[in-house]
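Q: Predict the assembly, please.
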Amino acid sequence: MPGIKDRVAIAGVGATRFTEHYEKDHEDLICEAVDEALGDAGVARGDIQAIWAGIYYQFTGLGGPAVADPLKMYGIPVTRVENYCASGMDAFRNACFAVAAGVYDIVLACGVEKITDQGSRGLPNVREGAHPFLPPASAPAMFAMSATRCFDVHGWTKEDLARVAVKNHANGAKHPKAHFRRAITMEDAVNAPEIASPLGRFDCCAVSDGAAAVVITRPEIARTMKHKDDFVVVKANGLSVETANPMYKPGFEYLGFPATQTASRAAYDEAGITDPFEQIDLAEVHDCFTITELLNYEDLGFCKKGEGAAFVRDGLSAPDGPLPVNPSGGLKSFGHPIGATGCRMITEVARQLQGRAEGVQVKDPKIGLAHNLGGPGAVSSVTILGRNDTL
Amino acid sequence: MPQMPKIATWHLPVPDVESATYWQGAREGKLLIKHCNACERHFFYPRAACPFCWSVDTSWRESSGRGNVYTFTVVHQNDLPPFRDRVPYVIAVIELEEGVRMTANVEGCSPDDVRCGMRVRVAFRDEARSEDDVVSLPVFRPEG
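A: Predicted assembly structure:
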C-alpha cells in the first residue's frame, strides 16, 4: 500500500475568527473561510472538484447542500462528514485520500459549526444514542471523570490543570482570530466557579461559532499555485474509533484515551516518526478540557503515562519550549465550533510550517502534528504535516 | 407516594421491550443485570445480545447492589429542569461486585465526602411521570 505520505499537499488555508457570531449564520461563516482558503491558494471556486465538510450538529446543516448552497458550488461531489468533535479532521482525511487515490486534482476540506442562538448554555443537549435508559452526562462531567481518576492515581491537582489554561490563554491572547484573547493567572483559573468538579470554568474550552477550510492537491500541482514551492506536505493521518460508552466498559481506566493512542501510532508509522518528542516541532491538540491536554501529551507519546502534569509544569509545551503545544491558544482559548475545529488545527499547523503564523509563530518548525478528539474519547484523528523541504 | 411532577419529565427513562424487566425490577427494589449463558459473563447496560460473544442466550440476574465508586464528578452547573434545583449533585461510575459498571447519582452524603474506591450500595429514588406511572431510579449510598 503506498499510503498518503508525501503524495498530498496543502495549497491554501482559511478560517473565520472563532467567537460568538450572533450576526452570522453557518452560510456566512463557511463562505468566509472557504473564500479565504481559495484566495490563499490562488484558485477559484470552479477549480474545486470535490468537497468534504465536517459538521456535527444537524441544526448547523444537513447533507452536502449545507455547504454547496451557500457557496453555490453545484454539480460536484459534496459530502458531509460527522464523527463527533473529530468531524473536521475526518473531512480533511477523506479529502486527502481522494487526492492520493488520483481521483481528483484539487479538492476542499472544510468544517463549520453555528452553536450560539440554539437556546442553551454550553453545548446543546443532543440525544444521539448514548445510554438507552438514562440521559448522558454533559461533556464537562464526562471529562471530569478522567480528572478525578488522575487526581486519585497520579496525585494531580487543580493547579496542574490550571497551568494548561494559563498557557493556552496566554497563547490565544496573541492570536487575532482567537475567541478568548485575554491572559489569565493561576489564581483566576484555580478560583473560578466549579462546572463539573474538579473542572472549573477555566478548565473548559470556549463554545464558539466558526469555520475553517483547506485547499488540498498534489505536490506537483501545488508548485504551480500561489505559494509556489512553499506548500505544506501531508505526511500521515491516523483515525481510530472506540466505544461512545466507556462508562460501561469494564477495565476502562479513565487515565487516557485509547483512540488517541492508536490513531497516533498509525500516523507515526506512516510518517516514520519513532520519537515524537524529538521529531515533532509543534502540535495543535484537542484541549476541550485542561485534563484532556495533559492526557494528550501521554497518549501522543510526548511523555510517559503519569507525566502529563510535569510536561506542562516544566515548560516543555510552552511556545518557546522544545515542543510547543497549542501555540494558537487551542480549543481552550481559540474556541471550539465542533465541526470546524479539525480543519482549523490543520490551518494553524500549516501556517506555522510556512513561517507565517503572525503573533504566535514558533521557532523554525519542520514537522507539525494536529490531534482531534471526539465524544468521550470515542474518536481520534492525528495528522502529521511537514514543511516543503521535508519532501 | 412520590411527589407529583410540576415540570417536564423528559429525563425519565421510557421502558421498552429490552428494558421493561429492568425497570420493573427497580420498582420492586431489585437491581437487575444481564448474564450471558454462553460465555458466563455479566454485562450492563441490559440488551438482547451479549456484547462479548454476541450470544442471544442471556438471562436476568439480581445484583448484590454492592460496589464501589470507580470515578465521579460533582456537577455544579446545569440549568435544565429538574437538575438545576439539585446542584451540586454527584454523577459516579459505579463498579458492582459482579464486575459490571453503571453510572448513577451518589446520595446520602455530602458531595465533598465522595471518594474513588468508596463502598456504596444501591437504593431506589422514585420519580413520577404521572399519578400511575412511577419510575424507580437506581442511586447509590455510602455503605454502613
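Confidence is low (pLDDT under 50) at residues 127-132 of chain A. The first strand of chain A starts at residue 8 and ends at 15.
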